[in-house]
Model the fold of this input.
Amino acid sequence: MSMRGLGTKPLFWVTTLVLAVAVAAFWQTTAPAGAQTGPGPGPGADSVPDLGIVSKYYIVVDAETGEVFAQRGAHEQVAPASLTKIFTSIAAIEAAPPDYEIVTTEADLVGWDATQVGFGPAETFTLEDLLYGMMLPSGNDAARAVARALGAEAGDSAEQAADRFMARLNGRLRDMGLTETTLINPDGWGVPGHRSSAHDIAAFTMYALEYPRFVQAISSETYEMSSGGYELVNTNKRLGVDDDLVGGKTGYDDTAGYCLMQVARRGDDTMIAVTLDGVAPDVWYDDNRALLDYAFEQKVARRDGPITGGAEMVRYLDPDAAVISRIAQASASIGAAPDPALVPFAGEVRPVADSPPQAAETAATAQSPAEVLALPRPAASANGLGFALLIAAVLGGTSALRVRRTLSVGEPKGRRAN
Done:
């Protein structure tokens, strides 16, 4: 990833990029998705009727606006179990194209007390196969293979490669302002210090819904891996049962309890519900369903008769603006290539994933109901980055168009964990 060829005026270019970052930041703060929770229209989310929710921590938000309809302990940093794979899947989508091949190793394998695809070493899969392996059967082995392969640099051990992937992912989360999340491994299986919050999971899911590949994965009841021999089944029991359910992700381990993120859509409204530390057998599903129903009811009530007051809004920052800022600050000489570590998931030899608009074009031909959800929603990061680079082009002339090509980010212990 080189910035060579941008000319011989480094100070000018640094100034141009910094100005572009400022414009991108302004653009993003005026968009529906922005930083953290803050005041907005509607009643307070904590002052809602007793919904009988048993799960210890929860939040339900409008996927488009970030409006919070109900929450409890949403900012508590707790173990998220396999909801971790929501973060890992987007990092993978942004890192490489669907057909990128990954060869499994012994380091990817997990014990039989953890959910898994069940592959052995030296098997070859596409990244898309392993994405479904993470999101349907909640395969810890798939998540580990992805992190190792996409984090690897020359001379790395499997552990070093996975650690690098996680460091980049955590950096991406900091760029988004999601400070309540620190992820130690790509699968979320029983690691001290591995934490997130209902708030951060909801905010990141808002971002994740911009990616048709993610939406299609969480919406799929089954998937046959391209190599054959592996038929994957989604662990979400409500998928295909609840008519308005787009999809979701389950999670469980002894520390986290039963965790669930679900996305539902009625008409033009899309809601995200996150419940953490719930109980079996089906109470955790009932909790999540009750939150989604309540949010849809409130959305209709507020549309018919707006309610004034102080509500919270879940927002996130445009992570690509931070990438541009770091490159600008690091480029004392703009002729030198920036440190790849400054740009998460963008190494010199790593294949570049499809951008969100390209993915949207591909999804449009498939006409999948799941992917239709993602199509009308332009990626916030692509908006901010694209607008910033447009300003850079105007200020710097046609040479600045090379920055667009250079900076293009990928698509915008008891029972078993799942």
Notes: Confidence is low (pLDDT under 50) at residues 1-15, 23-43, 346-372, 375-415. The chain is about 40% helix and 15% strand. The chain has two domains: 10-34+320-357+382-407, 40-312. The CA atoms of residues 245 and 331 lie 47 Å apart.
